[in-house]
Amino acid sequence: MRREPCVRTGRAPMDLLPDPAPLATKLENTLLRYHSIADSEWRIARKTKDAVVWRKPSEEFSGYLYKAQGVVEDVTNRIVDHIRPGPYRLDWDSLMTTMDIVEVFEENCCVMRYTTAGQLWNIIAPREFVDFSYTTSYEDGLLSCGISLNYGEVRPNFVRGFNHPCGWFCVPLKDCPSHSLLTGYIQTELRGMLPQSAVDTAMASTLANFYSDLKKALKS
């Protein structure tokens, strides 16, 4: 059954948070459009035994939109539970150092604040993000998507990054429902004074490592 776009609960609204329902709908439609981009528009950025990572110029900012895809040996719901905001993500994601849920609109819709570790021998310093997250049904599986918000004060010693529309499609394999095809679209604007080559290297490596870390977590 398809989930309805999230709505505010009876709690008092937080001044700078957007109305979640139209944002969720717009975000979902953007991810569906990315998912329909022709294969010929993508260029391979990295390939490992766990995943393939492609990229193309982003329409949102001067960097790249990355696409990652790989088969994960588990059922769709369990995989998405490990990816979306919740008790699992912080335990296995080697890049994420803290995560706090700022506001819950519904079970499938929230705002979270999280921090990431430094990368490439700290050429890329620790980052902080505040993201709107929404999970809904897609075909026989799920889509978990998000976008950053300009909300709240930046923590000391962190640079505030920004995730343009991003998300993960997870669907069971037709010939093997106990395995799932996981496809992600990520376009992170790290901000700060960074050489573009360092950003490109970090993004491709991070996405490849995401799959290997996720697989280890699901087996434990």
From TrEMBL:
GO biological process: cholesterol import; cholesterol transport involved in cholesterol storage; intracellular cholesterol transport
GO molecular function: cholesterol binding; cholesterol transfer activity
Pfam families per record: START
Superkingdom field: Eukaryota
InterPro entries assigned: StarD4 (IPR042555), START-like_dom_sf (IPR023393), START_lipid-bd_dom (IPR002913)
GO cellular component: cytosol; endoplasmic reticulum
Domain START: 23-220
Protein name as it appears in the record: StAR related lipid transfer domain containing 4
Natural source organism: Phasianus colchicus (Common pheasant)
Gene symbol of the encoding locus: STARD4
